[in-house]
Write a structure and sequence with these properties.
This protein has 269 residues and is mainly β. Helix content is 1%, strand content 61%.
Length: 269
Amino acid sequence: MRGDDYSETTTDWSGRFMALYAMDEQQNHIVRAGFARSFRSPSVALREHNSSYLQPFGFSLFETDVPEGYEWNNEGTYSLEAGYAGQLSDNFSLNVDTYYQRMEDLAGARSSTNILGVTTSTLQNLCGANSWGAETSLTWQYKAVKLTGWYAYNGFETDEFAPKLRSTFPSQHKAGLSGRYILDNEWIFNANYAFQNGINAFGTVVKDPQTLHRLDLTLSRKFAKGTGEFMVGVSDVLNKTADAVYDSGNMTGLETPGRTFFTRLQFTF
């Protein structure tokens, strides 16, 4: 449990409670249940001003302080979780995790337009939302080979239709496959593939994530009796660049490198 007090926002708390239960003496099958709460304090940029601009040109006419006496609440999340982790056999293991989240006081922009076409946007707490989902993974391991396939579903629904939130909605479907192959106890090859579908959050301030396929490859070798490791690899093989990300208050964004080749040398002392 943790408590926080900050003069610019409300006093708030966060915490986590988790219970685990082994269904057998060998602890090959374990179930868990949990409750958690967390919060996010709005940044100074959100708390201190609003803006007016002329449609359809979109340029800002002026910025003013938020109305006197207006108070921000922290964005808060309550979470209920349940899961299972099991060693099904010598070669197979299974993980299943489920969750439900209730979000309150999500921050975003409330806009109004007068008869002159001037739109005024005030950043404030807009509404709440419900989120639910499940994540599952199945792992097969035999000697030097390990393969894991996983899938995640994320549902998300706001109390209002198409609010202009400053948050990115979760992709509804995600899936992946990872593999590891150990050669003569020194060379290790890793491959990780992940997919997420694009979403359309309609009124959100930030740019919606697109459908994404990602593949990462690495080859490493241990030396000096296992205290050193040299690695070569390439991340995001399938994408030359990553899309620009636009946050609230930003008019431009920059693409970032996607496909990246790298080397790494590390020692353990």
